[in-house]
Amino acid sequence: MRRKRLVILGATGSIGASTLRVIAAHPDLFEVVGLAAGRDTAKLRELAARFNVRNLALADSDDPTIPHGKQALCDLAAHPDADLTVMAIAGMAGYEPTLAAIEAGHDVALATKEVLVMAGEEVMRRRAAKGVRILPLDSEHSALFQALQGEAYRPACVRTADEPAAEARVAEAILTASGGPFLRRKELDWKRVTVAEALNHPRWRMGPKVTIDSATMMNKGLELIEAIHLFNLRPDQLRVWIHPQSIVHSLVRFRDGALLAQLGVADMALPIQYALTWPDRAADAPVEPLSLAQMQGLEFIEPDLSRFPCLHLVFEALPQGTWTHPILTLANEVAVRAFLAGRITADRIAAVIEEALAAGPAPFDAILRQAEASVDRFAAS
Fold this sequence. Notes:
By secondary structure, this protein is an alpha/beta fold. It has a domain at 4-137 and 268-290: NAD(P)-binding Rossmann-like Domain (Rossmann fold). The chain is 42% helix and 14% strand. The strands form two sheets. It has a six-stranded parallel β-sheet with strand order 3-2-1-4-5-6, with helices on both faces. The protein has a four-stranded mixed β-sheet with strand order 8-7-9-10, covered by helices on one side. The protein is globular and about 60 Å long.
């Protein structure tokens, strides 16, 4: 059997590292034909040597020997030798390379939330037109993906026109959340939250932007939007519950009342391996198996939206329509970047998003300008 050939964008990040761990565990199944990173030239060269990869790209570099820039990422994502493109570039930078991979006829294993949040309708329309699959890498969406599937049913993200729709049987989809670093804090004053505190996640080690989103629970809001597009669900079918142990990764309640969940250890290698091997399951994932003893004392807590205003804004915005989706992600990205840079306090993240939503539908560049203007005003006050 020919090995599946992979291009990995975001190879030096946490998702990239977990993906390469899976590939290293199954050299008989996978071959890496392309690697891309942000600007870490040394790390990219190290990975290229380890996995014998010649095709490289960087988002930003002054090294003339490695292609760099937006077009270089798009070219690599669409590389003719690839079967599947792993999209793990953080933020908006993953959008155009994802479209390039789809247009090239490649399946996409997607970890970048912003791609579907910004342009989910367009991405899913192009996916269907090209007959390729969008395979979720996030543990929550992988859990929903696994629970939705049956022998006769396929979720929207991989379904062809003649296959029955899995979502037709769904009553609600429940995404679980760790609760982040502030779940147990009795008095949560976002104005006093420091960057170091917000980056101190109790369970996951992720990039700074994603870690801040976890602290504010905005990451769960963006995941709700992803679920709408991946699985063709309505906003009123979606729920969020806090599950601090991060063992139950998400659940689906079907119309007959049955509740199916996917459980596993808190290790991204497991959902990544499932995406890479779908529709099969490879043996011996490079993770410790979950034991029954680990499942004792599991907690499920309905989130207090008054403590997490970013998530509250998402629940208010989603019923208004898909025009809210790019506003939620772009305004949040601008605000989080400003918070990490020390320009605004943590409470202003929600305020920037709220002002952008109040301004109404707008093109991407206008949303960014609105959010930057809000940040400038808050920084000066």
